[in-house]
């Protein structure tokens, strides 16, 4: 009997939480729509307040995404959403969540022009994801794209070099040839000394 009551309480709490989340999302949607309307009417202060309240009820990234859908031609808003998504992407990177970071940076790169480097970071994240999946060739290709977008970036150059060394194996062919020549020379010297001693 006690376990049934506990189950009923847990189910009731879950339903209440679900209802509260739906209500918050609906309220955020309504506030967001009102914010878009205020923005279109050039009442920026009111729009900002409505967007802030919508963000309090619903995560900011969702509120901003909805605003971009409502105002598809607004370059400033797209830039702000892109900036927010970049921040979320870097947060995911710091948590080593490359899958989430890749998705977030992909969305940011669609909203922002390539000059700001977000596309470069997107390719870096895709490179890391592919490397973790064992696709070294794909990882190297993505890093080369990142380097192409930011050719003066020393970090990207280092990443390309690191991936190239992994792709070719622990020793590049030139290094292997050098070591082979050194080994042949050492063997020849050892043979010569053996013949001289004998």
Structural class by helix and strand composition: mainly alpha
* Portion in strands: under 5%
**CATH class label of the largest domain:** Mainly Alpha
Distance between the termini: 97 Å
* Average of pLDDT: 73
**In percent, how helical is the residue content?**
over 70%
Task: Write down the CATH topology of the largest domain.
Answer: Serine Threonine Protein Phosphatase 5, Tetratricopeptide repeat
* Total number of strands: 0
Rg of Cα set? 28 Å
Largest sheet, if any? none
Number of helices: 9
Shape designation: elongated
Q: What CATH architecture label of the largest domain applies?
A: Alpha Horseshoe
InterPro entries: TPR-like_helical_dom_sf
Word description of this protein:
- InterPro entries: TPR-like_helical_dom_sf (IPR011990).
- By secondary structure, the chain is mainly α.
- The protein has two domains: 1-72, no CATH class; 76-173, Serine Threonine Protein Phosphatase 5, Tetratricopeptide repeat.
- Helices cover 84% and strands 0% of the residues.
- Helix 1 crosses helix 3 (60-70), helix 4 (75-94) packs antiparallel against helix 5 (98-111) and helix 7 (136-149) packs antiparallel against helix 8 (154-168).
- The N and C termini lie far apart (97 Å).
- The model has no long low-confidence stretch (mean pLDDT 73).
């Amino acid at each position: 009997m006690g376990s049934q009551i506990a189950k009923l309480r847990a189910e009731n709490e879950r339903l209440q939480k679900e209802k509260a989340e739906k209500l918050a999302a609906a309220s955020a949607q309504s506030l967001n729509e009102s914010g878009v309307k205020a923005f279109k009417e050039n009442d920026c202060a009111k729009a900002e307040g409505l967007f802030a309240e919508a963000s309090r009820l619903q995560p900011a990234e969702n509120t901003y995404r909805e605003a971009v859908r409502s105002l598809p031609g607004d370059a400033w808003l797209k830039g702000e959403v892109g900036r927010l998504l970049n921040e979320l992407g870097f947060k995911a990177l710091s948590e080593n969540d490359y899958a989430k970071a890749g998705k977030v940076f992909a969305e940011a790169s669609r909203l922002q022009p390539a000059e700001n480097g977000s596309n470069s970071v997107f390719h870096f994240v895709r490179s890391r994801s592919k490397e973790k999946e064992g696709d070294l060739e794909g990882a190297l290709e993505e890093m080369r794209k990142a380097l192409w977008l930011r050719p003066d970036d020393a970090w990207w150059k280092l990443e390309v070099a690191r991936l190239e060394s992994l792709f070719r194996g622990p020793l590049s062919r030139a290094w292997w040839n050098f070591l082979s020549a050194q080994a042949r020379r050492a063997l020849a010297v050892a043979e010569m000394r053996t013949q001289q001693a004998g």
